[in-house]
Write a structure and sequence with these properties.
- The chain is an alpha/beta fold.
- The protein has three domains: 85 residues, Winged helix-like DNA-binding domain superfamily/Winged helix DNA-binding domain (Arc Repressor Mutant, subunit A), CATH 1.10.10.10; 103 residues, Periplasmic binding protein-like II (D-Maltodextrin-Binding Protein, domain 2), CATH 3.40.190.10; 102 residues, 3-Layer(aba) Sandwich (D-Maltodextrin-Binding Protein, domain 2), CATH 3.40.190.10.
- 40% of the residues lie in helices and 25% in strands.
- The strands form three sheets. Strands 3, 4, 5, 6, 7, 10, 11 and 12 form an eight-stranded mixed sheet that branches.
- A hairpin with a 2-residue loop joins β1 and β2.
- α1 crosses α4.
- The radius of gyration is 32 Å and the shape is rod-shaped.
- The relative contact order is 0.14.
- The mean pLDDT is 88.
């Protein structure tokens, strides 16, 4: 098998025209270069150099091997440049899983910033609803997932959670509702209302159920909706009230009023989930995490 390092030494000898000049350019002794050429000829099974006056010139086999060494050298240089770009975060790929409201308020501005700062990074986006994206992160099929997760929930093996923001739930009432004139509503004031669910059972509905349990009642859902816009339409139609996360009220229905809730105030915590080992060796992912933190810090409630 031909040794790639010796082929690059052959290239230096052919380019310079002598063993002595090649040795000087490479920082080797002439005897070391001669030994490497003798070994390479044994590996090739044919003479590669022939003497000409005070120098050397390649044989047909030497010219052939020198051409390949030139191509290999170019590819090695390109590989080194590509690796340097990857290490610096100028290139790379990031697979992201997200849910709808996080996509609009966090992912979109974060990707806009990432594109400005690291334009060579490619991002693969996929909506995770209704599937749990954590197995994809654990198995390496996704690099980052945005999830709703209580801060005190048990850890997940191999996953690190980066807290981005807390998104409070607001009461959405039909116009003319008996509580519409209040700037703040006690959660217990809604205990006897007909309720409209704005999320499917899971981490986004759990904060509402937990807050109601803390207030001493269970909400009576009369309509199940799986998106915030539809839930607002049901409220506007007078079918009941809803608690909707603040980030889900970007497109507010004109026939509803929105009020803050207290005692207690339901809140969902939004995190970025990444593999514990990933960020240190993944500059593109680090850049996306920084962009998500910035987007979260500058998010303005609708």
């Amino acid at each position: 098998m031909l040794d790639m390092r010796r082929m690059q030494i052959l290239r230096a000898v052919v380019t310079s025209g002598s063993v002595t000049a090649a040795a000087r350019n490479l920082g080797y002794t002439p005897s070391a270069v001669s030994q490497q050429m003798a070994t390479l000829e044994k590996e090739a099974g044919i003479a590669l150099l022939e003497r000409t006056g005070r120098g050397v010139r390649p044989t047909d086999a030497g010219r052939l091997l020198n051409e390949y060494a030139t191509v290999i050298g170019r590819h090695v240089a390109e590989a080194e440049t590509a690796l340097a770009d990857l290490r610096a975060g100028r290139t790379g790929r990031v697979a992201v899983r997200y849910f709808a409201t996080a996509g609009a308020t966090l992912v979109a501005p974060a990707l806009a910033r990432l594109r400005r700062e690291q334009p060579g990074v490619q991002v693969n986006l996929k909506m995770s609803d209704p599937e749990d994206p954590l197995p994809e992160v654990q198995q390496g099929r996704a690099d980052l997932a945005l999830v709703v997760r209580p801060r005190d929930q048990l850890p997940v093996d191999g996953i690190r959670f980066v807290h981005l923001l807390d998104d409070r739930y607001l009461a959405v009432l039909p116009e003319g509702h008996r509580l519409a004139a209040k700037p703040e509503i006690e959660l217990t004031d809604l205990a006897d209302e007909a309720w409209i669910s704005s999320d499917r059972p899971g981490p986004c509905l759990d904060p509402v159920l937990d807050a109601c349990a803390s207030a001493g009642f269970t909400p009576g859902f009369v309509v199940e909706s799986e998106d915030h816009a539809t839930a607002q339409a049901f409220v506007a139609a007078g079918l009941g009230i809803a608690l909707i996360p603040e980030l889900g009220l970007g497109n507010r229905h004109p026939a509803v009023v929105v009020r803050t809730v207290r005692t207690p105030e339901p809140v969902r915590s939004i995190h970025a989930a990444v593999r514990e080992s990933a960020p240190a060796g993944h500059p593109a992912l680090r850049g996306l995490l920084d962009a998500l933190r910035t987007a979260a810090a500058t998010t303005t409630a609708p």
